[in-house]
# Entry
Amino acid sequence: MSADDAVGVGLVANLEGWSGEWSDAGPDTLDSLVMEARDRLANLGFFAGAGVIWILVALVLTTRDPRTDSAAGFVGALLIGLAVGLTIVPLFWLAAFARHRRIAYRGDWTRAVRRGGWVAVVTIVFVILRLQGVFVPALALFILALVILAEAVLSVER
# Structure
């Protein structure tokens, strides 16, 4: 039996390969080879929320001009940042899930949401700086360096 077949039926994996025995450890074991339903629903929920926000972004970008309506630029920046942040959260979680060999650890969702928040805030700041005409690559690099440093400090495993 291949590894793909074993994932669906719940066979036990060991160092020698697939043993052919049924796992009786339950759904809370760390050796689970399938994604939990709650994680799958959370990923789909984030993507669905991001899809709705992207539709709102398209609506704002096609109906309002930031040169004539000053609030449109800020609303657009907020919506674009929120859409990018919501889109990236499940991608951060899935990257950690893949890096941990399909094991979801406690705190992975918190870390993914925090990193998605950083991406959203940086996107909002960059769009607003561009709208105001003060976007400078040196300032963008400084902001990115600050965010990377803050995330490195917050991500230290204790």
User: Anything to note?
Assistant: Residues 5-14 have pLDDT under 50 and may be disordered. The first helix runs from residue 3 to 9. Residues 1-33 form one domain.
